[in-house]
Amino acid sequence: MSNDTPEPYPSYPEQPGLPASPQQGLPAPSPQQQGFPQVPPTNTLAIVSLVSAFAVSLVAVITGHLALGQIARRGERGRGLAIAGLVLGYVGLASTTVIVVLSIVFAAAFGHLFVNLAQRGGVGGPVASATSEPDASQGVLPSGTLGAAHFDDGYLSVGTGSTIVDEYIDPMCPYCGQFEATNGALLASRVDGGSITLRIHALTFLDQASQGTYYSTRASAALTCVATVSPDATLDYLAALFANQPEENSQGLTDGQLAALAPTGTDISDCIARGEYQLWSEVNTDDALNGPIPGAEIDSIQGTPTVLIDGAQYPGGLTDSREFEAFLDSGSGSGSGQATTQGTSGA
């Protein structure tokens, strides 16, 4: 029977010297060819984030966050690079913030220092004398008594009466000016009449309110200059200081203007120029603020004006002359107001 399908060639083992069988010469069937798996690319923004972290921290932070979002969506590589860029970027931002804050603080501090130096003549030579700083370079406090100044006790004393009146004032204190305008003449007349001893404590609480000119210290020292060279003119000069009192937060009077207020025949220009008694005025202020106050019913001075009559504090109105005179005569006031003002306190 005929068969159109050819029979396969017989297969036989390969033998040396014989040709291979036809099937042995055909190539073996191969499976469908497959491509190599592709490696995902590295995210570009992740690289930018890491590189920019060493130069511009803000760019590193922004591109780092963008890179993480793209990596999550696209399956790209570079997550570690993005995280490293973010960490370095945030560290850089924190460091920059600290540096900027410290720079502002130091700039403000040194700027204030340079302004004060310039005002006091420390930079570029001397300027107006109204800006001369209290001279503590001498470092030695005066002692004993000179004229009306009782240096060891910390006050200027006028009069010889048996009633002791202690008046704590600051030359720039507006309430002190009101008290002087109302009661200054009364106190002066009692001093002249021999009934009281008036002890003036000129303090420096309001140096901070004179734009760096230290007016309270300079004016207190100028009053002491007059008290040492012309004791009888002490109250006149005190009245002149308050009659020409500058406003708070102004530069105050210049040294020349303070010298010009001295009574005729009393020259305190050199005393002011040398800065004499400035340190003494500041020490008196510290002592009054910290206490104790010898022989007084109060422990320390908390504001100006503070007036003590034989150690008892006057509690009445500053501008009520009758009330103050009654307290001065009887040792007790009838008013309920406070003569001290916390606004002028150095506490």
Automatic annotation (TrEMBL):
Bilayer-spanning residue ranges: 45-68, 80-110
Keyword set includes Membrane: yes
Keyword Nucleotidyltransferase carried by entry: no
Signal peptide per UniProt: none
A Pfam family annotated for this UniProt entry: Thioredoxin_4
Residue stretches making up the Thioredoxin-like fold domain: 164-329
Alphabetical keyword list: Membrane, Transmembrane, Transmembrane helix
Annotated Low complexity bias: 337-347
Domain DUF4190: 45-98
Disordered, as annotated region: 1-38, 328-347
Name this protein carries in UniProt: DUF4190 domain-containing protein
Organism: Cryobacterium algoricola
